[in-house]
């Protein structure tokens, strides 16, 4: 059986909250708009950029590819790049225990991929900075696929790995991740250290939720063994 674990990036592997908030505030200011509340910005992390700014504008009548939506998206990209150039990657640290978790899963023979709302350029940059590139056999990004929760990203990773949906675990911090897993017929493993509350992850179909990265290897082992029912919804011994 091919075991495939696909990670989200922002809010799951790296904590990008500060740079995302700063870039989005700058994007709205560049378009002479009042910036959204920080909590509203955190809620859209995980969506592809046009969908994210569209949601923040809160007007379903606005087309995704016209007017203020692409202008805001471009302003966000420019602000994000400026922040990265001026501060490096210090605003996107790995969450505690992530690197050890990736090493442990690799040693156990688990194949790993990423499905993220980042662009491929942004994802490759962050992986190279943290020295994580060699852990992943599949990288799926928002500039290659429809936005989450559409299953295209996850389905592409499954094909590349030669796995099956029912043997694939998607690890993420948002309801969009859990819905993507559900839409692809995969297993959704939520993490509580990201940007959506555990109850939101559960409502979106998370099979189980981990509270620390160090729990992930044992959670994954339990899911593949078919014994998630004996585990706490939030933690694993």
TrEMBL record:
The protein's name: Haloacid dehalogenase
PANTHER family recorded: HYDROLASE-RELATED, PHOSPHOGLYCOLATE PHOSPHATASE
Gene3D superfamilies: HAD superfamily/HAD-like (3.40.50.1000), Putative phosphatase, domain 2 (1.10.150.240)
A Pfam match: HAD_2
InterPro entries: HAD-like_hydrolase_sf (IPR050155), HAD-like_sf (IPR036412), HAD-SF_hydro_IA (IPR006439), HAD_2 (IPR041492), HAD_sf (IPR023214), PGP-like_dom2 (IPR023198)
Superkingdom as given in the UniProt entry: Bacteria
